[in-house]
Amino acid sequence: MKKPQNKQLPKCPTGIKGLDEITGGGLPKGRPTLICGSAGSGKTLLSVEFLVRGATEFGEPGVLMAFEETESELTENVTSLGWDLVQLVKEKKLSIDHVYIDPHEILETGEYDLEALFIRLGCAIAEIGAKRVVLDTIETLFMGLSNASVVRAELRRLFCWLKSQGVTAIITGERGENSLTRQGLEEYVSDCVIRLEQRTAEELTTRYLQIVKYRGSSHGSNEYPFLIEEDGVSVLPITSIGLNHQVSNERVSTGIERLNTMLGGQGYYRGSSILITGMAGTGKSTIAAYFAQETCQKGERCLYLATEEAPQQILRNTLSVGINLNQFIEKGLLQFEAVRPTAYGLEMRLVKIHNWVKEFQPRSLIIDPMSNLNLNGNSQRTKAFFMRLIDFLKSEQITVLLTNLTAGGTALEHTDIGVSSLMDTWLEVRTTETNGERNRLLYILKSRGMEHSNQVREFLLTSQGIELIDVYLGQGNFLTGTARIAQKAREELEQINRQQEFEQKKRELESQTEILQAQIAALQVQLKTQYEMLNSMTKQAENHQQRLVENQEVMMKLRQGD
């Protein structure tokens, strides 16, 4: 038996970055939505963008009925965002109606109703075939009225009338003291309620958006930071960021051949997070620059977020180690975004990074250094920021490299923000003081999912680039710098001395061998002589015996013996 599919509530897409994702597709179609907030929170701008996006992207004309700002004021205020309201009005895609109400001219007598407003708004809707309506702001309609029951009755009539027209409406309202709105009723009769808020902390102002209610639809209930940029409102959809992202087995080079060897011979994983920690002057930024160069040399884009140095200074400094990043900027492969941490809060920075990533489409991203973002001292918020950022970048398969400045006198294998557990690869660069000099060392603390070296390497910065050299490993210690060079020279001298001693011993043995061989030869000659003498004597004895026998035979014959 098939499971019946749930019928989805019709949605009206807003076209506003991030808002449609949070609301699950947009605002409730054909129903009123209340946007409430204090002055300066962005209610009017959000509402106007809803109309502009509807007219330009979705073919839905809209009516803007303003009770505070005139048509010319509204048009002028949004021109900087690239929205030409005058042209939209000429094309019958937008209708702007300013209704002036002076509370000092209102005299309470008889019954009060909004019938005239309904007629006026109905004509505007019919004239252009509007599908979207914005009323900005609702409090102005009831200014000067003290009868709360009348106000509430007319509010209900207004919301019911908008529903009857089949238009998707936004009504803006000022926030009350103990309620979302001043009348305290609008949030109950609205099908969707969005609260906007502007807060200032540590001298940094951040705007937040929250979906308070949404009848008939699931929605994100968190507070979402949003930014008013050059092209409109951008909302960061936090709820869309999670741990259900794809992983890659592809490896990307570090740009340093010996470091690639230490990382299993191939480098980092694509879409992984890399952390480089160390004190000032250890070479963290240089390692990051090599990675940026390697990314761009493969024809991929790299986004470099500098929080401490200006791009011009970084470009100059990298030239001293043989890296020319200017060429990649000219080719459009490398983009610097240098903004001090005090420019805006972490939420706004996260929104900015989202927008930069969507616009530039990088394959790798560098933040140098990330420790500067913790200047406000709230490590918990900073860690949450990096957690959301890393999850977002991993979901986009973007390799992120972070450098972290470690203060002197603190534990080296540590970050103030506490994000080391989020990292896939962690490189530590430190200095050691010996023989009156400071030498750099590099080693890998961890690298998930790959075989990697556990050896310490001496880290040299030269005009030709980075060199990773084997340190001298002794009994229980290691040597670097001139101590390593001196020890190497001593070992070479000892080797030469051993070689010379060996050669001397070899010559002595060869000489002794020659003497012994000569003595052996002489003995062999003497022995041969003795053998020859023995053979001669043997032959003489044999001859003597033979002659003796012959003489005896002759004598016997002479004696005529038997």
Automatic annotation (TrEMBL):
Against Gene3D superfamilies, the record matches this protein to:
P-loop containing nucleotide triphosphate hydrolases
Q: Which InterPro entries match?
A: AAA+_ATPase (IPR003593), Circadian_clock_KaiC-rel (IPR051347), KaiC (IPR030665), KaiC-like_dom (IPR014774), KaiC_C (IPR047222), KaiC_dom (IPR010624), KaiC_N (IPR047221), P-loop_NTPase (IPR027417)
Q: What class of enzyme is it?
A: transferase
Q: Which domain of life is it from?
A: Bacteria
Work out whether the entry's keyword set contains Lipid biosynthesis: no
Which is one GO molecular function term here? protein serine/threonine kinase activity
- Keywords in alphabetical order: Coiled coil, Hydrolase, Kinase, Phosphoprotein, Repeat, Transferase
Pfam families given for it?
ATPase
Keyword Hydrolase carried by entry:
yes
Among PROSITE patterns, the record links this protein to: KAIC
Domain KaiC, first and last residues per copy:
10-249, 250-482
* EC number(s) reported in the record: 2.7.11.1
Q: Which residues form a coiled coil?
A: 479-554
Q: Which NCBIfam families match?
A: PRK09302.1 (NF006799)
Q: What is this protein called?
A: non-specific serine/threonine protein kinase
Query: What organism is recorded for this protein?
Result: Floridaenema fluviatile BLCC-F154
For this protein's source organism, the top of the classification is: Bacteria, Bacillati, Cyanobacteriota, Cyanophyceae, Oscillatoriophycideae
Q: Corresponding gene?
A: kaiC
